[in-house]
């Protein structure tokens, strides 16, 4: 694995701690934009896949006071850090975080109103399997949002190409009313694919 892998894609050790500090510090604009697209309802049951240091989980918890937020991440280090960051909400059973894979989500069918993932789907070993898992755990009529801010991209067109892949995975997994949103931001734009089960 490269240094970037152990810092961001599969955070572990010292590099993972440093990566988590960067992710926690520099994702606010993307997280707030993502939230603006989610049509959040106070009682929503939400699942975030690949939550990293748990900053978006924390933002969601403040906006869905009567709901429930679950999270799955493959990195034990990120589960530990996000658990620390969301300690009070976890104690109140408003948030529940666990280690697990996007490819085999540890939940029964038809459970959530909303599933989302931010800057994680491109890392999974099999994107379509993961997106199908998100479909499976959503209730009928539930929403999905897949956000990517591809820091490796050099142009807006490259970001839009990433968005086209996200849309393909959503459609192939069975989602309806799929659409893309695009937002210019630093250091590179973000793209979000949305759909309904
Ligand atoms: C680049 S970080 C993004 C973290 C956070 N969502 C953000 O936007 O800052 C990618 C995260 O996806 C997680 N991840 C990678 N592969 C995964 C998989 N197969 N299943 C679940 N999580 C995974 C990593 O552990 C890491 O926390």
Automatic annotation (TrEMBL):
SUPFAM superfamilies to which the protein is assigned, alphabetical: S-adenosyl-L-methionine-dependent methyltransferases
Name this protein carries in UniProt: Methyltransferase domain-containing protein
Domain of life assignment: Bacteria
Alphabetical UniProt keywords: Transferase
Protein's UniProt keywords contain Transferase: yes
A Pfam family per the record: Methyltransf_25
InterPro entries in UniProt: Erg6_SMT_methyltransf, Methyltransf_25, SAM-dependent_MTases_sf
Domain Methyltransferase: 46-142
